[in-house]
Write a structure and sequence with these properties.
Elements (H helix, E strand, L loop, with lengths): L10 E8 L3 H10 L5 E6 L6 E9 L4 H9 L4 E9 L9 E9 L2 E7 L7
Antiparallel strand pairs: 1-3, 1-6, 2-3, 4-5
Length: 117
């Protein structure tokens, strides 16, 4: 059996992130040798869909996994917003406004026992 960073796990990372980001996060983690379990969840403003991922890791790889997750912290994106009062529906103008989006909430738990069957 191939040795992975999930072998002999003594830490459990629970990370909650926006549903829009989770595929890229999982691909990045998998590409770096971490295997994850994805749970769909909701919460926060307007009950927006989130993804909760669980990663069992050996303490030796904890900082590496956290570093990969931190890359998906809050970011600024530009969104178009209406500017002023429109003269008609066809002449409405818009401006780009920076908004905060994304983000990840991370919990790290100690694992007392880990079994695989």
């Amino acid at each position: 059996m191939k040795n992975t960073k999930n072998e002999n796990c003594d830490k459990l990372i629970i990370a909650i992130l926006q549903n829009d980001d989770y595929r890229e996060v999982v691909e990045n983690l998998n590409g770096n040798g971490f295997y994850v379990t994805v749970l769909q969840s909701s919460g926060g403003f307007l009950r927006k869909m989130n993804a909760t991922i669980m990663i069992g890791v050996n303490h030796e790889y904890l900082d590496e996994a956290l570093g990969l997750l931190k890359q998906y912290g809050r970011r600024t994106e530009m969104q178009y917003e209406p500017a002023g009062m429109p003269v008609s529906p066809l002449t409405m103008s818009s401006v780009q406004v920076p908004i905060q989006c994304g983000g990840v909430v991370i919990f790290v738990l100690d694992v007392a026992q880990n079994e695989r069957y």
